[in-house]
Amino acid sequence: MLALFHAFSTKCSQIQRAIKLGDDELVASLDSELEPLIAAILAFKATSLLEIYMQLQFMNNLIREEADDRSRVLCNSTSLSVLIDRYFGGASEAAGEVMKTFSSEKIDRDDVFGFEEGSFLNDVILDSLPDRVAVITQDYRYLYSNAANSEFLESKPMELVGRHISEFVGCEYFESSVKAKLDACFAGERVECLYPSHRDVEPGKVFHCTMTPLRTKADVIGALVVMHEIITVPAGMLVA
Question: How many domains is the chain built from?
Fold first, then answer.
């Protein structure tokens, strides 16, 4: 599924470049290629809680992005309803697994996502936070980005889904520092570290980063990454 999301975000980036160039013909051509990708994403039958969440989050973002177009909102809302009915209408094995996960008395909320009490992935809450928040999958790609992180990366949330984190921090820095810390998080460890800003317009800025394992039952499926700028580097912590 991530390949579909990556293809979609790539197409969106190409459209933005074509708009900046004023090439209306190219914009129209690229725009016509988005619908088949959206259809493919909706047709994908998820087999895990993570994939279900990805589809629902994608449609939620799409509805937001096209909020000014009433016809598109109605169309996207219908598609969202189809997804909800598919997975939560009791007609598929995937729906059964999801309902079992959330209804079992043996599994509390911390076991499902590995977060503290009540801190579920809620995009309304996360978008209101000044901190940068993202969810990174085990192949080091964005699954979710809140408003603050998307603004920092100068991208729309739905354009980030499926893109590799090395695109933003650089391949060399990713391999030398970021990858090892994400791997430790994927292994179940809560990681805290400091990172310098990699943008030329922000020399000297330092960010405190916390990586928390994102769990489904006993398995870690990703990392919840929270970053905020700090003024003073804490004693005993080195900037990575």
Answer: 1
